[in-house]
Amino acid sequence: MARSVSTEGTTHAAVEIFWRRISRKPTIFGHPGIFDGSSRFSRMEDLMLSVRLVVVSAVLMFAAACSSSDYSTPPTSPSPAPTPTGPSSSVAISVGAATLADRAYTPDEIDVAVGTTVTWMNTDSIAHTSTSNAVGWNSGTVAPGGQFSFAFQTAGTFPYHCTIHPGMVGTVVVR
Question: For 95-105, what is each residue's pLDDT tens digit?
Answer without folding.
Answer: 888 788 778 89
